[in-house]
Amino acid sequence: MLRRSQLFVPGNNERMIRKAALELRPDSVIIDLEDAVPVDEKETARKLIRELLPQLDWDGKELCVRVNDPRTPFFYADIDTVYRIDPVKCIVIPKAEFDLGFVYKATGREIEPLIETAKGLLRIEDVVRSEGVTAVSYGIADFALSVGGSLKAYEPNQVIKTFVVSAARAYGIDPIDRVYFDIKNLEGFRMDCMEAKSLGFVGKQVIHPSQVLVANDVFSPSEEEVNWARRIVEAYEKAVRDGRGAINLDGQLVDYVHYKLAKRVLEFVRQSG
C-alpha cells in the first residue's frame, strides 16, 4: 500500500468527498469527522458518509475516516458508523496516547494513530505496537498546544519527526509526515516533503488538492534514483557471486546497506506498478 499522499476531506461536504473519489489522485483519502466538522453537524456528517461512501468508486485509493478524540462523547458513535461502511479500510485516531488494539478488535479495520500530545509522544511505542496499527502520523498544531509552545517553533522540529520515524520503523509500519498549513506556498510544501523523505517518511498528510501531485512526485523515486538503484543491485549481486562484500561503483563505496536501500527503491517501483 502506497501512502505518498493522504488527503483530508471534511466529512460534512458531499461535493468535496465526491471530488476526492472521482477526480483527485491521492493514495489515501481521510474523511474527517473531527476538526473539519462542527459539533452540531457531527451526526449529519455520520449519516452522510454512511450513505455516500459505499456508492462511490474509490479506484484503488485507501479510504480512511478520522474519528473524534477517544475521550470525547463522539468517539463511539463514530466507531459504530465506520464499522458499518464496508469501503473504509483504516481508522485514523487523533490524540493517541494508549494501546488502540481494542478498536481493531471491534472493527477489523487498520489503525493509523496521530501523535498530538506530550503524553502521546512519550508513549508512542505503546501506541504504534497496538494490534492493527499500520501507519502513524502526528499533528503539530495540537502538539504545540499540548506543551504550551508555539506552532512556529514546533513546525520545523526534527526531534518529533525523528521520534515518529524511529517508532514506525522499529515496528514495521508507515511513518507519514504532518500537514503543511500554507496551502498557497507549493514550493515551500515541496521542500517540506523533500526534508520528510530524507528523514525516512514515506508520505505526507495533505489538506488541499494542489498538494497531492507534489507529494506523490516527491515520495516517488526519480528516474535517476531508479536507474542508480538498478546499477547498485546488479553490481553488488555480481560482487557477492565473486566473493566480495563491498565494491567501488563510479568512485562510491557500495556495501550491503547501500544494496538494501537500492532494493527498497526497486520494491517501491514494483508495488506502484
TrEMBL record:
List GO molecular-function terms, semicolon-separated: lyase activity
- Alphabetical list of Pfam families matching this protein: HpcH_HpaI
Q: Which UniProt keywords apply?
A: Lyase, Magnesium, Metal-binding
Cofactor dependence: Mg(2+)
Matching InterPro entries: Aldolase/citrate-lyase_domain, Citrate_lyase_beta/mcl1/mcl2, Pyrv/PenolPyrv_kinase-like_dom, Pyrv_kinase-like_dom_sf
Q: Where is the HpcH/HpaI aldolase/citrate lyase domain?
A: 4-97, 114-209
Record's keyword annotation contains Transport: no
Task: Please give the name of this protein.
Answer: CoA ester lyase
Native organism: Vulcanisaeta souniana JCM 11219
